[in-house]
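ABC transporter ATP-binding protein: structure tokens wanted.
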Amino acid sequence: MSLVVQDLVIEIDDRRVVDGISFEVADGERLGLIGESGSGKSLTALAVMGLLPEGASASGSIRWNGTELIGLRDRQMAELRGDQIGMVFQEPRTALNPIRTVGRQIAETVRIHERLSKAAARERAIAAATQVRLPAPENIVDRYPHQLSGGQRQRVAIAMALASNPRLLIADEPTTALDVTIQAEILQLLLSLVEGRGMSLVFITHDLAVLAQVASRGVVLEDGRVVEHAPVGTLLSAPRSPVTQGLLRDATATLWRPEGGAS
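Answer:
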């Protein structure tokens, strides 16, 4: 297993917000964490990245290829972050630095981990922008986030997460703020990049229809606990918990394949 989360507990100001979550992600597997707002899915992802907010603490176990991440020193965690584990955050407008060009931000992780020159890092940024199908990549890397559309900003966020070729990608509701057409394009892009690189994926969403497009297995969360864990096809065809049944009723994506979900 590349990622093993066991009995994860997260507390914020002595309030338990994640209560004993466990799941595993094998090499090359695509797993979904699904639940309504406040279910603990995003906090779980932040715990894996070592990016919990101030006042939050984690206990239990998060192992990445055998290395325990809870309690890992900041410098060691920084070496893993971006290089081995990448993350696409929910809202690129807030995740991107407004006063830095997008090319500089795409190349930042590469420069940190590979110590490339400024010129070489720019070439990597252009290559990454090309891979995520940004228009005129040689020009767009010199623009600032406010000069891009929402879909283009999300492509930049994906390029940033993948620039150093991590083995695991965590995508936290990467299409929530986009319209349905752009959402479908981003989902297809993300899936093609993950499959093409043989990466593992943890995809976070509140929409079971979206999950059906990108994951083979789903972990359903409510109030910081796992309430159901099954292949996505089973969640679609025979949901057991009331939470999953409610998510199924609320599914909104237009590209839903209920006959089998993602393979």
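Strands lie at 3-12, 15-25, 30-34, 56-64, 67-68, 85-88, 168-172, 200-205, 217-222, 225-231. Confidence is low (pLDDT under 50) at residues 253-263.

Cheers.
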